Protein backbone atom coordinates (compact mmCIF):
# COMPACT_ATOMS: atom_id res chain seq x y z
CA UNK A 1 0.00 0.00 0.00
CA UNK A 2 1.69 3.12 -1.30
CA UNK A 3 0.42 5.55 1.33
CA UNK A 4 1.46 3.26 4.16
CA UNK A 5 4.90 2.74 2.59
CA UNK A 6 5.36 6.52 2.38
CA UNK A 7 4.43 6.93 6.04
CA UNK A 8 6.84 4.18 7.08
CA UNK A 9 9.55 5.90 5.08
CA UNK A 10 8.84 9.15 6.93
CA UNK A 11 9.10 7.34 10.29
CA UNK A 12 12.41 5.75 9.36
CA UNK A 13 13.81 9.07 8.16
CA UNK A 14 12.82 10.86 11.37
CA UNK A 15 13.53 8.00 13.79
CA UNK A 16 15.86 5.43 12.19
CA UNK A 17 15.00 1.88 13.19
CA UNK A 18 11.58 2.77 14.59
CA UNK A 19 9.86 0.63 11.93
CA UNK A 20 12.59 -1.55 10.42
CA UNK A 21 13.74 -3.02 13.74
CA UNK A 22 10.21 -4.23 14.46
CA UNK A 23 9.54 -5.58 10.98
CA UNK A 24 12.86 -7.44 10.95
CA UNK A 25 12.02 -9.14 14.23
CA UNK A 26 14.70 -7.38 16.29
CA UNK A 27 11.99 -6.17 18.68
CA UNK A 28 9.46 -8.48 20.30
CA UNK A 29 6.29 -6.41 20.35
CA UNK A 30 4.76 -8.66 23.00
CA UNK A 31 7.49 -8.03 25.61
CA UNK A 32 7.09 -4.72 27.50
CA UNK A 33 10.81 -4.28 28.19
CA UNK A 34 11.62 -4.79 24.51
CA UNK A 35 9.03 -2.18 23.54
CA UNK A 36 10.36 0.38 26.04
CA UNK A 37 13.99 -0.23 25.07
CA UNK A 38 13.09 0.10 21.39
CA UNK A 39 11.42 3.46 21.98
CA UNK A 40 14.43 4.79 23.87
CA UNK A 41 16.91 3.44 21.34
CA UNK A 42 15.16 5.09 18.40
CA UNK A 43 14.62 8.48 20.07
CA UNK A 44 10.82 8.32 20.25
CA UNK A 45 10.54 9.78 23.80
CA UNK A 46 11.55 13.23 22.55
CA UNK A 47 9.32 13.22 19.47
CA UNK A 48 6.52 15.32 20.96
CA UNK A 49 8.65 17.37 23.36
CA UNK A 50 8.69 21.03 22.22
CA UNK A 51 11.88 22.19 20.54
CA UNK A 52 12.21 24.87 23.24
CA UNK A 53 12.72 22.03 25.74
CA UNK A 54 15.25 20.21 23.59
CA UNK A 55 12.83 17.84 21.85
CA UNK A 56 12.01 17.24 18.22
CA UNK A 57 8.90 19.38 18.47
CA UNK A 58 6.97 17.46 15.82
CA UNK A 59 3.90 19.17 14.47
CA UNK A 60 0.55 17.50 15.08
CA UNK A 61 0.41 16.34 11.44
CA UNK A 62 3.87 14.79 11.75
CA UNK A 63 2.94 13.14 15.05
CA UNK A 64 -0.14 11.63 13.43
CA UNK A 65 1.97 10.12 10.64
CA UNK A 66 4.53 8.75 13.09
CA UNK A 67 1.69 7.10 15.02
CA UNK A 68 0.29 5.52 11.84
CA UNK A 69 3.70 4.11 10.99
CA UNK A 70 4.26 2.74 14.49
CA UNK A 71 0.78 1.19 14.54
CA UNK A 72 1.43 -0.53 11.22
CA UNK A 73 4.47 -2.21 12.78
CA UNK A 74 3.32 -2.82 16.36
CA UNK A 75 0.10 -1.95 18.17
CA UNK A 76 1.98 -2.16 21.48
CA UNK A 77 4.55 0.44 20.45
CA UNK A 78 1.81 2.73 19.12
CA UNK A 79 -0.19 2.57 22.37
CA UNK A 80 2.92 3.10 24.50
CA UNK A 81 3.83 6.09 22.32
CA UNK A 82 0.32 7.53 22.76
CA UNK A 83 0.35 7.20 26.55
CA UNK A 84 3.84 8.67 26.80
CA UNK A 85 2.65 11.48 24.53
CA UNK A 86 -0.28 12.22 26.82
CA UNK A 87 2.10 12.77 29.73
CA UNK A 88 4.37 14.94 27.57
CA UNK A 89 1.44 17.10 26.48
CA UNK A 90 0.18 17.41 30.06
CA UNK A 91 3.53 18.63 31.37
CA UNK A 92 3.99 20.86 28.31
CA UNK A 93 0.68 22.58 29.08
CA UNK A 94 2.24 24.07 32.22
CA UNK A 95 4.09 27.34 32.16
CA UNK A 96 7.72 26.86 31.18
CA UNK A 97 9.05 27.65 34.65
CA UNK A 98 6.69 25.05 36.12
CA UNK A 99 7.92 22.15 34.00
CA UNK A 100 11.20 22.37 35.93
CA UNK A 101 13.33 20.71 33.33
CA UNK A 102 11.26 17.52 33.14
CA UNK A 103 10.72 17.67 29.39
CA UNK A 104 14.35 18.58 28.75
CA UNK A 105 15.37 15.41 30.60
CA UNK A 106 12.86 13.38 28.60
CA UNK A 107 14.28 14.65 25.31
CA UNK A 108 18.00 14.60 26.07
CA UNK A 109 18.06 11.36 28.08
CA UNK A 110 15.35 9.52 26.09
CA UNK A 111 13.19 8.94 29.15
CA UNK A 112 9.72 7.41 29.01
CA UNK A 113 6.76 8.76 30.97
CA UNK A 114 3.74 6.83 32.18
CA UNK A 115 0.31 8.27 32.87
CA UNK A 116 -1.19 7.30 36.23
CA UNK A 117 -4.26 9.47 35.90
CA UNK A 118 -7.72 8.11 36.59
CA UNK A 119 -8.70 5.41 34.14
CA UNK A 120 -12.35 6.34 34.22
CA UNK A 121 -15.03 3.91 33.16
CA UNK A 122 -18.62 4.04 32.00
CA UNK A 123 -20.31 6.46 34.37
CA UNK A 124 -17.10 7.03 36.34
CA UNK A 125 -15.33 10.38 36.38
CA UNK A 126 -11.96 10.78 34.69
CA UNK A 127 -11.23 13.41 37.32
CA UNK A 128 -11.73 11.18 40.33
CA UNK A 129 -8.17 10.29 41.36
CA UNK A 130 -7.29 6.81 42.54
CA UNK A 131 -4.14 8.04 44.31
CA UNK A 132 -4.36 10.12 47.50
CA UNK A 133 -1.73 12.54 48.84
CA UNK A 134 -1.54 13.25 52.57
CA UNK A 135 0.88 15.67 54.23
CA UNK A 136 3.46 13.95 56.44
CA UNK A 137 4.98 15.36 59.63
CA UNK A 138 8.26 16.18 57.88
CA UNK A 139 6.49 18.38 55.33
CA UNK A 140 6.48 15.96 52.41
CA UNK A 141 3.48 14.35 50.75
CA UNK A 142 2.82 10.62 50.96
CA UNK A 143 1.09 9.03 47.97
CA UNK A 144 -1.02 5.91 48.35
CA UNK A 145 -3.22 4.08 45.88
CA UNK A 146 -2.81 2.53 42.47
CA UNK A 147 -3.59 2.97 38.79
CA UNK A 148 -4.63 0.05 36.59
CA UNK A 149 -4.05 -0.40 33.81
CA UNK A 150 -1.04 1.89 33.53
CA UNK A 151 0.89 1.61 30.28
CA UNK A 152 4.67 1.33 30.75
CA UNK A 153 4.05 0.69 34.47
CA UNK A 154 7.22 -1.34 34.96
CA UNK A 155 9.42 0.23 32.31
CA UNK A 156 8.84 3.98 32.48
CA UNK A 157 11.39 6.45 33.87
CA UNK A 158 9.07 9.26 35.01
CA UNK A 159 5.59 9.01 36.51
CA UNK A 160 2.82 11.55 35.96
CA UNK A 161 -0.04 10.86 38.36
CA UNK A 162 -3.43 12.39 38.97
CA UNK A 163 -3.80 12.73 42.73
CA UNK A 164 -6.27 13.86 45.35
CA UNK A 165 -4.51 16.27 47.70
CA UNK A 166 -5.73 16.71 51.26
CA UNK A 167 -6.86 20.28 51.84
CA UNK A 168 -5.29 22.21 54.71
CA UNK A 169 -8.69 23.54 55.78
CA UNK A 170 -10.81 20.42 55.37
CA UNK A 171 -10.65 16.79 54.37
CA UNK A 172 -11.69 17.62 50.81
CA UNK A 173 -9.46 16.45 47.99
CA UNK A 174 -8.22 18.82 45.31
CA UNK A 175 -9.14 16.68 42.30
CA UNK A 176 -7.07 18.48 39.70
CA UNK A 177 -3.70 18.07 41.35
CA UNK A 178 -1.08 15.97 39.64
CA UNK A 179 2.45 14.93 40.45
CA UNK A 180 5.56 14.37 38.33
CA UNK A 181 8.46 12.37 39.74
CA UNK A 182 10.98 9.64 38.92
CA UNK A 183 9.82 6.03 38.78
CA UNK A 184 12.64 4.81 41.05
CA UNK A 185 11.19 6.40 44.20
CA UNK A 186 10.86 4.10 47.20
CA UNK A 187 7.37 2.67 47.55
CA UNK A 188 6.57 2.39 43.83
CA UNK A 189 5.96 -1.07 42.43
CA UNK A 190 3.98 -2.78 39.71
CA UNK A 191 1.70 -5.80 39.74
CA UNK A 192 0.55 -7.93 36.80
CA UNK A 193 -2.79 -6.80 35.44
CA UNK A 194 -2.94 -7.10 31.65
CA UNK A 195 -3.63 -10.74 30.78
CA UNK A 196 -4.79 -10.37 27.18
CA UNK A 197 -2.27 -11.17 24.44
CA UNK A 198 -3.52 -8.16 22.45
CA UNK A 199 -1.27 -5.08 22.91
CA UNK A 200 0.60 -7.02 25.57
CA UNK A 201 3.89 -5.28 24.87
CA UNK A 202 2.60 -1.90 26.09
CA UNK A 203 3.05 -3.20 29.63
CA UNK A 204 -0.30 -1.95 30.90
CA UNK A 205 -0.13 -3.35 34.42
CA UNK A 206 -1.01 -1.95 37.83
CA UNK A 207 1.22 0.80 39.20
CA UNK A 208 1.12 0.81 43.01
CA UNK A 209 2.00 3.69 45.36
CA UNK A 210 2.78 2.76 48.96
CA UNK A 211 3.77 5.82 51.02
CA UNK A 212 5.69 7.30 48.12
CA UNK A 213 7.32 10.51 49.35
CA UNK A 214 7.11 13.58 47.10
CA UNK A 215 7.75 17.26 47.76
CA UNK A 216 5.73 20.38 46.99
CA UNK A 217 8.02 20.83 44.02
CA UNK A 218 6.68 17.60 42.51
CA UNK A 219 3.00 18.56 42.80
CA UNK A 220 0.91 20.92 40.67
CA UNK A 221 -2.38 22.19 42.08
CA UNK A 222 -4.82 23.17 39.34
CA UNK A 223 -7.99 25.12 40.06
CA UNK A 224 -10.80 23.56 38.02
CA UNK A 225 -12.32 26.98 37.34
CA UNK A 226 -9.28 28.52 35.65
CA UNK A 227 -8.03 28.74 32.09
CA UNK A 228 -5.06 26.60 33.10
CA UNK A 229 -7.43 23.74 33.88
CA UNK A 230 -9.01 24.12 30.44
CA UNK A 231 -5.58 24.09 28.84
CA UNK A 232 -4.68 20.86 30.64
CA UNK A 233 -7.90 19.22 29.47
CA UNK A 234 -7.63 20.39 25.89
CA UNK A 235 -3.94 19.91 25.16
CA UNK A 236 -3.50 16.55 26.86
CA UNK A 237 -6.67 15.03 25.47
CA UNK A 238 -6.24 16.42 21.96
CA UNK A 239 -2.67 15.15 21.53
CA UNK A 240 -3.48 11.80 23.11
CA UNK A 241 -6.54 11.32 20.91
CA UNK A 242 -4.69 12.32 17.76
CA UNK A 243 -1.90 9.82 18.36
CA UNK A 244 -4.41 7.10 19.29
CA UNK A 245 -6.23 7.66 15.99
CA UNK A 246 -2.98 7.32 14.08
CA UNK A 247 -1.86 4.22 15.95
CA UNK A 248 -5.07 2.25 15.55
CA UNK A 249 -5.54 3.36 11.95
CA UNK A 250 -2.01 2.09 11.28
CA UNK A 251 -2.85 -1.28 12.81
CA UNK A 252 -5.96 -1.57 10.64
CA UNK A 253 -4.23 -0.51 7.42
CA UNK A 254 -1.44 -3.03 8.06
CA UNK A 255 -4.11 -5.71 8.50
CA UNK A 256 -5.62 -4.85 5.12
CA UNK A 257 -2.16 -4.77 3.54
CA UNK A 258 -1.40 -8.23 4.92
CA UNK A 259 -4.67 -9.59 3.55
CA UNK A 260 -3.77 -8.27 0.10
CA UNK A 261 -0.35 -9.92 0.30
CA UNK A 262 -1.93 -13.23 1.31
CA UNK A 263 -4.07 -13.11 -1.82
CA UNK A 264 -7.33 -12.55 0.01
CA UNK A 265 -8.45 -9.87 -2.45
CA UNK A 266 -8.40 -11.88 -5.66
CA UNK A 267 -12.14 -12.05 -6.29
CA UNK A 268 -14.10 -8.91 -7.11
CA UNK A 269 -16.24 -9.03 -3.96
CA UNK A 270 -13.25 -9.53 -1.68
CA UNK A 271 -11.25 -6.81 -3.40
CA UNK A 272 -14.22 -4.48 -2.97
CA UNK A 273 -14.44 -5.27 0.75
CA UNK A 274 -10.75 -4.54 1.29
CA UNK A 275 -10.91 -1.36 -0.79
CA UNK A 276 -13.93 -0.13 1.18
CA UNK A 277 -12.22 -0.74 4.51
CA UNK A 278 -9.01 0.96 3.42
CA UNK A 279 -10.90 3.90 1.93
CA UNK A 280 -12.96 4.47 5.06
CA UNK A 281 -9.91 4.39 7.33
CA UNK A 282 -7.91 6.68 5.05
CA UNK A 283 -10.84 9.12 5.02
CA UNK A 284 -10.71 9.32 8.82
CA UNK A 285 -6.97 9.97 8.61
CA UNK A 286 -7.54 12.79 6.14
CA UNK A 287 -10.05 14.34 8.53
CA UNK A 288 -7.55 13.91 11.36
CA UNK A 289 -4.86 15.74 9.39
CA UNK A 290 -7.23 18.66 8.91
CA UNK A 291 -8.04 18.81 12.62
CA UNK A 292 -4.39 18.43 13.58
CA UNK A 293 -3.57 21.75 11.94
CA UNK A 294 -5.75 23.42 14.58
CA UNK A 295 -3.81 21.69 17.35
CA UNK A 296 -0.68 23.47 16.14
CA UNK A 297 -2.23 26.89 15.57
CA UNK A 298 -5.40 27.73 17.51
CA UNK A 299 -6.33 24.85 19.75
CA UNK A 300 -9.54 25.25 21.75
CA UNK A 301 -12.73 23.42 22.58
CA UNK A 302 -13.75 23.42 18.92
CA UNK A 303 -10.56 21.50 18.12
CA UNK A 304 -11.15 19.08 20.98
CA UNK A 305 -14.72 18.53 19.77
CA UNK A 306 -13.50 17.78 16.24
CA UNK A 307 -10.71 15.41 17.25
CA UNK A 308 -12.99 13.45 19.60
CA UNK A 309 -15.65 13.13 16.90
CA UNK A 310 -12.98 11.89 14.50
CA UNK A 311 -11.80 9.31 17.03
CA UNK A 312 -15.35 8.02 17.60
CA UNK A 313 -15.85 7.84 13.84
CA UNK A 314 -12.76 5.65 13.58
CA UNK A 315 -14.13 3.41 16.35
CA UNK A 316 -17.34 2.85 14.42
CA UNK A 317 -15.42 2.34 11.19
CA UNK A 318 -13.18 -0.34 12.69
CA UNK A 319 -16.15 -2.10 14.28
CA UNK A 320 -18.06 -2.06 11.01
CA UNK A 321 -15.23 -3.65 9.01
CA UNK A 322 -13.79 -6.05 11.57
CA UNK A 323 -16.09 -8.99 10.85
CA UNK A 324 -15.42 -8.85 7.12
CA UNK A 325 -11.65 -8.63 7.65
CA UNK A 326 -11.76 -11.66 9.95
CA UNK A 327 -13.79 -13.58 7.37
CA UNK A 328 -11.26 -12.72 4.67
CA UNK A 329 -8.42 -13.86 6.92
CA UNK A 330 -10.00 -17.31 6.97
CA UNK A 331 -10.66 -20.03 9.49
CA UNK A 332 -7.07 -21.23 9.73
CA UNK A 333 -5.91 -17.79 10.87
CA UNK A 334 -8.72 -17.70 13.41
CA UNK A 335 -7.87 -21.12 14.85
CA UNK A 336 -4.18 -20.55 15.48
CA UNK A 337 -2.43 -17.48 16.90
CA UNK A 338 -1.06 -15.27 14.14
CA UNK A 339 0.03 -11.71 13.47
CA UNK A 340 -3.01 -11.23 11.28
CA UNK A 341 -5.63 -12.22 13.85
CA UNK A 342 -3.82 -10.34 16.62
CA UNK A 343 -3.84 -7.20 14.49
CA UNK A 344 -7.53 -7.57 13.72
CA UNK A 345 -8.41 -7.98 17.39
CA UNK A 346 -6.14 -5.09 18.37
CA UNK A 347 -8.16 -2.61 16.34
CA UNK A 348 -11.11 -3.06 18.69
CA UNK A 349 -9.16 -1.88 21.73
CA UNK A 350 -9.60 1.75 20.65
CA UNK A 351 -13.13 1.78 22.07
CA UNK A 352 -11.80 0.96 25.55
CA UNK A 353 -9.63 4.07 25.88
CA UNK A 354 -11.29 6.93 27.77
CA UNK A 355 -13.08 9.22 27.25
CA UNK A 356 -15.84 6.84 26.16
CA UNK A 357 -18.42 7.85 23.59
CA UNK A 358 -21.34 6.63 25.70
CA UNK A 359 -20.30 8.93 28.55
CA UNK A 360 -19.39 11.92 26.40
CA UNK A 361 -22.08 12.17 23.74
CA UNK A 362 -24.38 14.48 25.76
CA UNK A 363 -21.49 16.87 26.46
CA UNK A 364 -20.43 16.78 22.82
CA UNK A 365 -23.99 17.33 21.60
CA UNK A 366 -24.37 20.30 23.93
CA UNK A 367 -21.23 21.84 22.46
CA UNK A 368 -22.54 21.22 18.94
CA UNK A 369 -25.95 22.73 19.67
CA UNK A 370 -25.10 25.50 22.13
CA UNK A 371 -21.36 26.06 21.85
CA UNK A 372 -20.85 25.45 25.57
CA UNK A 373 -17.51 24.19 26.81
CA UNK A 374 -17.47 20.60 27.93
CA UNK A 375 -15.52 18.52 30.38
CA UNK A 376 -15.11 14.86 31.13
CA UNK A 377 -17.31 12.79 33.38
From TrEMBL:
<dbReference type="GO" id="GO:0050660">
    <property type="term" value="F:flavin adenine dinucleotide binding"/>
</dbReference>
<feature type="domain" description="Acyl-CoA dehydrogenase/oxidase N-terminal">
    <location>
        <begin position="5"/>
        <end position="89"/>
    </location>
</feature>
<dbReference type="InterPro" id="IPR037069">
    <property type="entry name" value="AcylCoA_DH/ox_N_sf"/>
</dbReference>
<protein>
    <recommendedName>
        <fullName>Acyl-CoA dehydrogenase</fullName>
    </recommendedName>
</protein>
<dbReference type="Pfam" id="PF02770">
    <property type="entry name" value="Acyl-CoA_dh_M"/>
</dbReference>
<keyword id="KW-0274">FAD</keyword>
<dbReference type="GO" id="GO:0003995">
    <property type="term" value="F:acyl-CoA dehydrogenase activity"/>
</dbReference>
<keyword id="KW-0472">Membrane</keyword>
<keyword id="KW-0560">Oxidoreductase</keyword>
<dbReference type="InterPro" id="IPR046373">
    <property type="entry name" value="Acyl-CoA_Oxase/DH_mid-dom_sf"/>
</dbReference>
<dbReference type="InterPro" id="IPR009100">
    <property type="entry name" value="AcylCoA_DH/oxidase_NM_dom_sf"/>
</dbReference>
<dbReference type="InterPro" id="IPR006091">
    <property type="entry name" value="Acyl-CoA_Oxase/DH_mid-dom"/>
</dbReference>
<keyword id="KW-0812">Transmembrane</keyword>
<feature type="transmembrane region" description="Helical">
    <location>
        <begin position="234"/>
        <end position="256"/>
    </location>
</feature>
<feature type="domain" description="Acyl-CoA oxidase/dehydrogenase middle">
    <location>
        <begin position="114"/>
        <end position="212"/>
    </location>
</feature>
<keyword id="KW-1133">Transmembrane helix</keyword>
<keyword id="KW-0285">Flavoprotein</keyword>
<dbReference type="InterPro" id="IPR013786">
    <property type="entry name" value="AcylCoA_DH/ox_N"/>
</dbReference>
<dbReference type="Pfam" id="PF02771">
    <property type="entry name" value="Acyl-CoA_dh_N"/>
</dbReference>
Amino acid sequence: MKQLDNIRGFCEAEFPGSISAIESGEVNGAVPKDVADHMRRTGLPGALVPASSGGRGLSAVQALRIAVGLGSASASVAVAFAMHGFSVATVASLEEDESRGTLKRVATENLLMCSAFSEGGHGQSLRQPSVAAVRSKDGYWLLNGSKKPCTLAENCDIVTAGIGVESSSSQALHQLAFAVFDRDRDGISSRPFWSNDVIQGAGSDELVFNNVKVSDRDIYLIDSQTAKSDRLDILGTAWFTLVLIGGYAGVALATIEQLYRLGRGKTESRAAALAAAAGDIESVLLASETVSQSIDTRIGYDTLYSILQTRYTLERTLTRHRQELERLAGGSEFIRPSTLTTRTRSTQALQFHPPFWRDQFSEINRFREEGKTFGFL
